[in-house]
Amino acid sequence: MKICHLTSVHSGLDTRIVIKECQSLARDGHDVSYIVPNEKNRTEYGVQIIGVSSNPRHPIERITKTTSNVFQKAKMQNADVYHFHDPELIPIGLKLKKLGKKVIYDVHEDVPEQILSKQWIPRMIRKFISNIVEKVEKKASRKFDAIVTATPHIEQRFKTYNSNTVTIHNYPLVEELAVENTKTDEIESSISQKGKVIYIGGIYRLRGIVEMISAVEESNDKSSVEFILGGKFAPPELEDEVRELSGWEHVDYRGQLNRIEVRQALGESQAGLVLLHPEPRFVVSLPIKMFEYMSAGIPVIASNFPLWKEIVEGNDCGICVDPLDIDEVSNAIRQLIDNPEFAQTMGKNGRDAVLELYNWEKESKKLIEIYNKL
């Protein structure tokens, strides 16, 4: 089949879209393209990357101008199947259906819930917009040929709109971030100098950046701990605020990292942090970074949400804590840094769980099956 993936928001080498979904489809023998803003035309991972112009000054401008540019490029591809990844592209998906095309909506987030915490939307109208988006998704999803969701929680809602709804988890590729095992004595030697914990991903207040830095600072009262931080701040001015924290002196900020740099940073670390605040949309989420830490063979320090505890404690691969309790987070950091053999065992347990359950190789088979049915 000729397959075209569409986005108006994501990056040119988005891990879920390109490295996992598009690459898997290309390897299965399909002709795959990916239309994405502000990228040079080229081929990566067997996928034809097609750039469109986008320079919005505001999200509303992106929703109007960028989506229009995406639609014009999409029509030129004359694909058999179109697979889009952003709710703002729902009108484009409906237009493509009218042209007689097969259309898949890939739902990464619970968007109506997410809107309730969007800072750029005035608080007084967030609930109103959230309700409208939910109604639009409900009506439009009935017309699409398939719905792909990132979590079972999102699937529950969309299954009531469209019976051809399937969860395809955003689990890691088995070998992409795997770090070679290190002998325990070498780990002990490294940690005796300075232990390292890591967070890689979008850097937001609600994802615990202030609490993570504060906990690392407190950990340094009794242990020597460095915090490797990778990703982009949002909003950008948050970086200036965070740099004023006294704990910033323990931060090794590396900016946006490519996949090779991510693997290298994970290889330096003794634990990975994923301390999202107890927002309703986070409590039922399955953050990829948690599984990437497990894939790399390092233990996880995670928020104590029931779903996350089931994974982390159920596989004995980390410690779950109250993400807003600095003392509790700090104690977990020191427990892993000061007990390298304990940390190594937990890291191995996480790696084993990824090999058996939480890997993209298994999830990709579900994606291929959806396309085969189409």
Outline:
The protein folds into two domains: 2-171 and 360-373, Glycogen Phosphorylase B (Rossmann fold), CATH 3.40.50.2000; 184-356, Rossmann fold (3-Layer(aba) Sandwich). With 374 residues, the protein is an alpha/beta fold.
CATH first level of the largest domain: which class?
A: Alpha Beta
Largest sheet: 8 strands, mixed
- Work out the number of β strands: 14
Tally of discrete structural domains: 2
Which structural class matches the secondary elements?
Answer: alpha/beta
Description:
This protein is 46% helix and 17% strand. With 374 residues, the chain is α/β, with parallel strands linked by helices. It has two domains: 2-171 and 360-373, 3-Layer(aba) Sandwich (Rossmann fold), CATH 3.40.50.2000; 184-356, 3-Layer(aba) Sandwich (Rossmann fold). The model is unreliable at 181-192 (pLDDT under 50).
Keywords:
6-stranded parallel β-sheet, 2 domains, Rossmann fold, alpha/beta, 8-stranded mixed β-sheet
Sequence-ordered SSE layout with sheet pairings:
Blueprint: E1 2-6, H1 15-27, E2 31-37, E3 42-44, E4 47-52, H2 59-77, E5 81-84, H3 90-98, E6 102-107, H4 111-115, H5 123-141, E7 146-149, H6 152-159, E8 165-167, H7 184-193, E9 195-200, H8 209-219, E10 225-230, H9 237-243, E11 251-253, H10 259-268, E12 271-274, H11 280-283, H12 288-295, E13 300-303, H13 306-312, E14 318-321, H14 326-337, H15 340-356, H16 360-373
Parallel strand pairs: 1-2, 1-5, 2-4, 5-6, 6-7, 7-8, 9-10, 9-12, 10-11, 12-13, 13-14
Antiparallel strand pairs: 3-4
Helix pairs in contact: 1-16, 8-14, 12-15
